[in-house]
Amino acid sequence: MPWFIKTKTEREAQKEISDDIWEKCNKCKAHVFKQDYINNLNVCPKCGSHGKITAYERIGMTLDSGTFKELNETISPADPLGFIDGKGPYTAKVDQARKKTGLNEAVVTGTGKINEIAVVIAVMDFRFLGGSLGSATGEKILLASNYACEHKLPYIIFSASGGARMHEGILSLMQMAKTCAGIARLDEKQLPFISVLTDPTTGGVSASYAMVGDVNIAEPGALVGFAGRRVIEQTIKQKLPDSFQTSEFVLEHGFLDMVVHRKDLKNTLSGILSYYNR
């Protein structure tokens, strides 16, 4: 076979090799050595864009090594409506998300330590149905907040979500009030709740627990908002600025306390927690 004719198998093999070596930045489109990208915490060394990371990657870079203990790992979605759309049943989507991620839900909860300070943590994973807030997601977040209350520990949630999981209808929307009720109990006991917003934090999550932290932090360039840009522009009949709904824009307008680079986040969190532990 001539050198310039490649079989499909050869082309696929070449792409796999390329994928193993390079990472393409979604923002600046630069190709970066994958290992350099990973070593830089999935942040593009060219433009500083913060890429998405998995829940367990987030836990690994936030908590002290060997301190994480997972809570309520087996809680998983139900299908109260028997939901089916043009792409098939909701249960099939859940099964696919489980296989893709190795998770049972869009959030991982547990306990651990940040620079020797004990915490309860909840980390959302956008790969699982867009990090959507379903009834099981809300249950895990609530149970983690209850654990923090019972053991007098600070609570940290890392949000990454497209919003409410509409496959579950009103039961999904009920999680907004349910999770905020759990956080309100933390406030009653004067236990700190820190909310960390990552890309993206939108919809029902941004309209509930993600924005009610004692301290609200976001990563640089994260999409933070409720409705989408196009919907808002069509509603108000105005063109929005390019920076609209970025974490920097939200900080400027008073809805965040700080924007923190991923590499500095662990020490920033421990500094805040040290203040509360005085």
What does this structure look like?
This protein is an alpha/beta fold and 278 residues long. 39% of the residues lie in helices and 18% in strands. The protein has helices at 8-21, 34-39, 55-62, 90-101, 135-151, 170-188, 203-206, 229-236, 247-252, 262-276, and strands spanning 22-24, 31-33, 69-71, 84-85, 88-89, 107-114, 117-124, 155-161, 193-201, 215-218, 258-259. Strand 9, helix 7 (203-206) and strand 10 (215-218) form a beta-alpha-beta unit. Helix 5 packs parallel to helix 6 (170-188). Mean pLDDT is 93; it is low at 1-6.
At CATH level 2, the architecture of the largest domain is: Alpha-Beta Complex
| Strand composition percent | 15-25%
Give helix % range. Answer: 25-40%
Number of helices: 10
Write out the strand line-up for the largest beta sheet, numbering strands in chain order.
3-6-7-8-9-10-11
Low-confidence stretches: 1-6
**Global shape:** globular
In angstroms, what separates the terminal alpha carbons?
A: 73 Å
CATH superfamily caption of the largest domain: 2-enoyl-CoA Hydratase, Chain A, domain 1
The CATH class of the largest domain turns out to be Alpha Beta
Query: Main sheet, how many strands, which sense, barrel?
Result: 7 strands, mixed
Name the average pLDDT.
93
Radius of gyration: 20 Å
Number of domains: 2
- Secondary-structure element string: HEEHHEEEHEEHEHEHEHHEH
Structural class based on helices, strands and sheet pairing:
alpha/beta
CATH-defined topology of the largest domain = 2-enoyl-CoA Hydratase, Chain A, domain 1
Tally of DSSP β-strands: 11
